[in-house]
Design goal:
By secondary structure, the chain is α/β, with parallel strands linked by helices. It has helices at residues 15-26, 30-35, 67-78, 89-98, 125-141, 156-168, 179-186, 198-203, 238-243, 253-264; strands at residues 51-55, 81-84, 103-107, 112-116, 122-124, 148-152, 171-175, 192-194, 207-210, 226-228, 246-248. Strands 8-7-6-9-10-11 form a six-stranded parallel β-sheet. It has a five-stranded mixed β-sheet with strand order 2-1-3-4-5, with helices on both faces. It binds N~5~-D-lysyl-L-ornithine.
Length: 269
């Protein structure tokens, strides 16, 4: 699993830059993309009166410089009051509770969750990232109805993405460097097909959700392709960028914004 580095997220606190980019390329803000993860929701989710506590976690490989501050900045941008706790770990959770946090964000090397202390609802970054990038892809494409999407990568985010997209699209294609993994995933759904060769998969699809850490050769990208790319590191070269109509990518903000919306709701769905 990819662990974020301080370098990956050095620009994340400047959320306004991504917001402007999203407005230009998908026609809505970061909050709009996150709100669209809720089925049937019209308009933007209202974060007024919600307080987020971000707890640094020292286990495993430890604290990533700038990580908690980035999550705080994203929460504030969405409209919440937010703070990073002075203490890490369990002491930080206690501190967040005592300071009246509604939602606690915390991440170790494997899981990143947002837990709503008031309702018991929680969201995890894997599911929220898949939903956030699917939302952005849907806004960029206009609709999934009668459309096909290629998912690159049958890892954690790709697996969730395939499951969700199989219910929304006419056909979903999935490709992975590990063919068996892609084949096994495809075999679970009647309208999901495995494409063994990644080059062939990219060459034959206009709508792509790239949830893999691999690089994609710009030669393969179709002119006018629409690409939503949660994968880290960023996969596209200059040629791919020039040929694609849209590439949506950021290391943290779309996933965290979707986590915020999904945990702030008062019910699971
Ligand atoms: O608190 C800190 O600064 C660190 N413990 C943050 C760790 C961040 N975790 C990661 O980057 C993991 N790869 C997250 C896995 C999320 C799954 N989508």
């Amino acid at each position: 699993m990819t662990r974020l580095t301080s370098d990956d997220i050095k620009e994340t606190p400047v959320v306004s830059k991504l917001d402007t980019e999203l407005k230009n390329i998908v026609g809505t803000t970061l909050l709009g993309v996150a709100s669209n993860t809720i089925p049937g929701m019209t308009g933007d989710f209202d974060f007024k009166n919600l307080k987020a506590g971000v707890v640094p976690i020292t286990s495993g490989e430890g604290v990533i410089r700038g990580f908690s501050e980035s999550v705080k900045a994203i929460s504030e941008y969405l409209g919440m009051e937010a703070f990073v706790t002075n203490s890490p770990d369990v002491g930080g959770i206690a501190e967040a509770m005592s300071k009246g946090a509604d939602i606690i964000f915390m991440a170790d090397d494997y899981e990143f969750i947002a837990y709503n202390l008031k309702t018991g609802v929680y969201s995890n970054n894997t599911i929220a990232t898949a939903k956030g990038y699917i939302s952005a892809l849907e806004l960029a494409m206009g609709t999934f109805e009668n459309n096909e999407v290629l998912v690159i990568g049958a890892g954690r985010v790709g697996t969730v993405a395939v499951e969700i997209l199989s219910k929304k699209c006419s056909k979903v294609f999935v490709t992975d460097i590990d063919c068996t993994r892609a084949e096994n995933l495809a075999s679970k759904y009647p309208n999901v097909y495995c494409v063994k060769n990644i080059e062939e998969a990219v060459r034959s699809n206009m709508n792509i959700l790239d949830a893999s850490p691999g690089l994609i050769d710009g030669e393969w990208v179709q002119k006018g392709a629409i690409i939503s790319a949660p994968g880290i590191p960023y996969a596209f070269d200059k040629k791919g960028e020039d040929k694609a109509k849209i590439i949506i990518h950021d290391p943290l903000s779309i996933g965290v914004s979707a986590m915020a919306v999904l945990s702030a709701r008062d019910e699971y769905f």
